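User: structure tokens for Reverse transcriptase zinc-binding domain-containing protein, please.
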Amino acid sequence: MVWEDSLKEDPQYHTRDFTWTNLAGLNRLTEQVSKEVLICHVIRPNSLTEEDLLSPKCIPQFKVKISIRTWPNKPLELQTMINIALDFSKGGEYLSLQPTKSVVIPVKTCRKFYEIEDGFWKLNGKNNASHIGIQKSDINSAESTVNENIKKARSAMYSLMGTGLHGENGLDSKTSISLIRTYILPILTYGLEILLPKGKILNNISIQYKKWIKQILSLNSNVADSAVYTLSGLLPIEAEIHVKAINLFGNISRANCDSIEWRLAERQLQIKPHNSCSWFIEVKELCLKYEINDLYAYLNNPLSKFQWKKLVKSKIHDYWTSKIIDESKGYSTLKFMDHKYNIGSVHPLAISVSANLKDIRKIPVRLKISTRNYILQTHKASFSKNNYISPTCKLCSKAHETVEHFILLCEKLEEARIPPLSKILDNGSLILAKVATSFPIDLIQLIINPFCYVDINANRTVFEETSNILEPMCRQLLYNLHNKRYALLANIDKQGSRKSNF
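Assistant: Done. Predicted tokens:
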């Protein structure tokens, strides 16, 4: 506030000290919420007394003069701002602006659009540029950042292939998922808590994320998404972004009330409508989705860092656990899966008993049969036109080759079936006798997924016995049947090729 006659500041109402660091931080923050910084002088009439200030009637007597705005209305003003920044960079406190590295991005919004004229700018004009790892674009910064993050994450995946991160014949699933969570996920979601991608952009990064998980688990691309999350124990990429965004708001709520971020959050939450493009309103909508109500109350009475993260984790995990389980129940291909989604824990079906490569090789067959993604004759026949492919088993030619026929009934596989099956029946009866069940036990279900009958929370001892004793036997049986089946099919194909040659 300045006096009308001398334009000198009134020290009584001079409450904010501006520095170049604070101003740069304020400018960066307002960019993310699509706002402008206006630095104004409030001109106070000399005739206005302190008693007059006690009433709102004094407001019409003030005058406001805009001194600086971050986005000028005229190209000449914009060029002047660039010149000021360039001159200031030569002062010695900061590195000089490099004409080949520093760029000007014309921002297009519903209110303003600046076009670059050749020969006008002293700095390069570009459609997009990178700033602290976040892509700035004149059209859609979120899409540019997502595309760049996918490229970086893909490069990180390739760099980890030497360690065995490549699905079959590589590391075990638990270690591979841990590598993705530690090294790939932070790169993939970097900066997205600020941009909050939605719609097609979010779908693009989600598709790529699920594709990598399926490749690591050696599953086909048509496996149900809920099965991928259940087996890996990972959250969807959308949930990961939401966790980071809401935790960022928690950091702002714990900041000093005089900080720019806190004051901006207070203003946005108070005056902005629900359909606003403000970042704070978008975070508010996310919190309502996860039943975290009254965000303004948390701003005024912030929780500690531990309490806030615990609340966010609990709410988001509960929401996605319920959603993934409900979705998995709607897929007929997942009838053998136990509808249990433990976030942060790899499903026992995907965990190898040891680090031995022989045990790791059995996991892909196990998971494909559990998700009904293992290709049998019935599957081929269902996708063939005009009944070109018969669903009859090629090995015994006596019945349709279903999962039940493959595991229990095909005569040609008896040699590979009988020894491990007898062990499963003996040990399974002893282990499941300790579990109080009111429904009959299905042998097919027991072989494909014995964890449907045990719960780690109900009886940890029985669960560990199932993981260490029963599950390896079931896995060995399916692996034996798989190898025997393909060996016999290879012989049949050889015989057929010989007959055709004659």
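User: Anything notable?

Assistant: The beta strands are 2-3, 38-44, 63-69, 103-104, 124-125, 128-131, 134-137.
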